[in-house]
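LAB NOTEBOOK - FOLDING QUEUE
OPERATOR: T.R.
BATCH SIZE: 2
PURPOSE: Compare the predicted structure-token outputs for two unrelated chains run back to back under identical settings.
PRIORITY: normal
REVIEWER: second-year student, initials M.K.

ITEM 1
FIELD SEQUENCE / FIELD STRUCTURE:
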Amino acid sequence: MTIFNLGSINLDYFYRLPHLVSAGETLSAIGYDIFLGGKGANQSVALAKAGADVCHIGAFSKKDEHYLNGMRDVGVNLNNISLLETESGHAVVMVDNNTGENQIVISGSANYQISKEQIISALVEAEETDWALAQNETSLVHEFFISAKEKGLKICYSAAPFIAKQTASLLPLTDLLVVNEGEADSLLKYLNKDVSALGLPHLIITLGSKGARYIGEEGNFSVLPFEVSPVDTTGAGDTFLGYLLASISQGMSMKHAISYGSAAASLQITKKGALSAIPSLQEVETLIKENA
């Protein structure tokens, strides 16, 4: 089973700060780094580390190609990434050195140069047992989901950065929607519906330090988080998503899959960075056993 991820690939310009910047404030950084990131890249790496077969569909600047080794080294299939002359997508990530909370500004750049031909080519070998995954950081998400649905793939939509109109338009195609609590509230207000009226096969609402809630064909329940001391929350949601979907694709129940996602995210926030902090499957399984 393969997971086809139409996903962003960014360079993260990472600033560690004594506190998050207020309007009009100039602040000196405590530390500075450049990391490979983007929601799509983060999720592909988390999927691969969790043991999934993942094919990434995306675009990146040719001059920055060496940064892709962070994906290649963990086993992500990069055959459907276009290397372009344009600038890579990028993000400015500001992290509070005391709390681990962050502020992020992104620029799509190459992520919005993905072609329909790329999508068609990538899905040629797709089978009905496969999954299609996308976020809101690239072009052609709707077209990708339509093409995947025509091939019989199941659709996982990680609807972030959240756009209510786009998310609502893609619900009829979506088998599994993953959003945080604020995004879920915004979607329900936009649609003027109760969560039970969305009609999704599977909905997961992440609740940060309160864990996650599931509503769908396998019931209505919550999964508690693992207690850790956070260092940096950047990429926690992507890590959760990758381990969650990999576990589902390997036949786990939703409850067990959410536990794997929660454990992975809990470990990820104990380290600096996003993609580089994603834990191994062995680390995740150890944490789960320790808390059984």
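ITEM 2
FIELD SEQUENCE / FIELD STRUCTURE:
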Amino acid sequence: MPRAPEPMTAPPPPNPAATVRRISVDAGGVTLSGLLGEPEHAPARAAVVALHGGGLNAGYFDARTAPGLSLVTLGASLGYTVLALDRPGYGASAARLPLGQTLTDQAATVTGALRDFTSRHATGAGILLLAHSFGGKVAIGAAADLPGETLLGLDLSGIGHAYQDPRHGPPDLTRHGDWRRNWGPLHLYPPGTFQARSVPVEPMPAQEIADAARWPAHFRDLAPRVRVPVRLTFAEHEAWWRHDPDALAELTAAFGAAPHVRAERQPDAGHNISLGWAARAYHLRALAFLEECLAPRAIAS
């Protein structure tokens, strides 16, 4: 009798690593820095522009603590241009914008950065705006005003419309309770994640801290203006945002102008999904969503 196959005990090998380089983008007079990965052997089919959360930086999307976790290299190896931006108040713009910017101004700055970026880099059929946590707030603001011919879809993680506890203020990585809410169980992250040179942490600008408490009202204004497909992901151990059935029904219904909206859960993940063991699974699902956004355009052509 033939022997049954042995169960797989190790993850599949990652795709070949793409080259990642640092770049600068002109966002209407404000210089933003970022990390860029591009396909090496064929034109880009589309582009992913990724926005990090509060108190982090673009390195959030280029985790190197274990093979295969980086969104930048994974996306480029699969034929997409991937730009992870340092949001206003982080990276190259931190000195010029020590207090950061309001949500409205950040959305406008990111929109300006996209105009400059698309004028100089191959973005194929358009852009998937992928964002985490506070970056998701900025992404929703930008998506509310971006034309459909530029934006293919909106992929968000670690962002909702209602805090689990309204008494909580904005995150503080130095407070024990906020540390647990930001990370969840520490075994969900590869060894070395929390070493000084590995964790992509930066100070959270004061303007973001002030805006965090006002987010529910901002969301009610912005969400109905988003006109592209939306995908929302909540980590299994998400502790900042409500993601019970009633909350998810309210959240998805708010995107009334979007062609379709869905909310998903990522098993074995804490709030900072893209730095954990679940990063590759989440990124592959995000890129599959991008393929779904591309399909109608391919059919129409």
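REVIEWER COMMENT (ITEM 2): The first strand starts at residue 20 and ends at 27.
FOLLOW-UP: none requested
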